[in-house]
Write a structure and sequence with these properties.
160 residues, mainly alpha, UraD-like, 8 helices, globular
């Protein structure tokens, strides 16, 4: 499969459950020959999206250490950070913090977990709960861009 459909199939999940990002990049995709170039183009699409689209993108992300169905990439990322191996206390901490964060901000806590331990993630949760909503909205998008860059780097590495 080639063309637009193939491009969206390959890159549509880079931004969690938001293929509209890849669809918007498609017209200029031929010039994007590296993971950083494609990451920049996709980030620009998100950055120029409406606040409602951005909020929907943020809300498309799963809770950390949750049991809900999530994209394969999210499963791998969370597993890589050991979130599938939480102790009973850690799991309870994640559930408590997920609920507090969602209540405060109206969307799930998002952090690029690659290279982080469970303790690092729990500490980030605690710290970011003190942010004001505008700061946290921007931080969630920054983390989503980091996640997308990691996913693209993995895809390009696998293709070599």
């Amino acid at each position: 499969m080639s063309g637009r459909e193939g491009f969206v199939r390959r890159y549509g999940a880079i931004y969690e459950d938001s293929p509209w990002v890849a669809e918007a990049v498609w017209p200029g995709a031929g010039a994007l020959r590296s993971a950083p170039a494609l990451a920049g183009a996709m980030a620009a699409v998100v950055d120029s999206a409406s606040p409602e689209q951005k909020l929907a993108l943020i809300r498309a992300h799963p809770q950390l250490a949750g049991r809900a169905r999530m994209a394969d990439a999210s499963v791998r990322e969370q597993s890589g950070a050991g979130l599938d191996q939480c102790s009973g206390q850690e799991f309870a901490d994640f559930q408590r913090l997920n609920a507090a964060y969602n209540y405060r901000f109206g969307f799930p806590f998002i952090v690029a977990v690659k290279g982080l331990s469970r303790r690092d993630i729990l500490d980030a949760f605690q710290t970011r709960l003190d942010n004001d909503p505008e700061t946290e909205f921007a931080e969630a998008l920054r983390q989503i861009h980091r996640i997308a860059a990691f996913r693209l780097a993995d895809l390009f590495e696998d293709a070599e």
